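Example S7 (C-alpha cells).
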C-alpha cells in the first residue's frame, strides 16, 4: 500500500520560512515524479512545484525565487523549502506521486499539512 505522509506545516509570520517534507512508502520512490500542491480556503487545488525522476524542477511563478523543491531518493522523501512566506501562501499543502506504467497513470496523494502565514 502506497503511503505519502507530509510534515512540517505550521503557523509562521510573514517573511518567515518553513520546510515541508513528504515521506513515501510502499512504492519505488525513484520511479515517481513528485509534486507539491496547495489548496487555499475557497479555492481549487493548484500545483506549486514539481520534480521529475531525473531531478528536473519547475516552480510556478508565484513562488519562484522563494520556494525550492528537492528530493532524496535514498530517504524516499521530497521536500519543499519555503522562504519569504506571504499571507497568500496560507493553504493546505499536499504531496503527490505520479508514474506512468504500461499506458496507465498512477497517482498517490498525501493527507496534507496546513501552512498558515500571519501578516
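Recovered sequence:
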Amino acid at each position: 500500500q502506497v503511503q505519502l505522509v507530509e510534515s512540517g506545516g505550521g503557523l509562521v509570520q510573514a517573511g518567515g520560512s518553513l520546510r515541508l517534507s513528504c515521506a513515501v512508502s510502499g512504492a519505488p520512490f525513484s520511479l515517481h515524479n513528485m509534486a507539491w500542491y496547495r489548496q487555499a480556503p475557497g479555492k481549487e487545488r493548484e500545483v506549486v512545484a514539481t520534480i521529475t525522476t531525473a531531478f528536473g524542477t519547475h516552480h510556478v511563478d508565484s513562488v519562484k525565487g522563494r520556494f525550492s523543491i528537492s528530493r532524496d531518493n535514498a530517504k524516499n522523501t521530497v521536500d519543499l523549502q519555503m522562504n519569504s512566506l506571504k499571507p497568500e501562501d496560507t493553504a493546505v499543502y499536499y504531496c503527490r506521486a505520479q508514474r506512468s506504467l504500461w499506458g496507465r497513470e498512477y497517482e498517490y496523494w498525501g493527507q496534507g499539512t496546513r501552512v498558515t502565514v500571519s501578516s
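Notes on this example. DSSP finds no helices and eleven strands in the chain.
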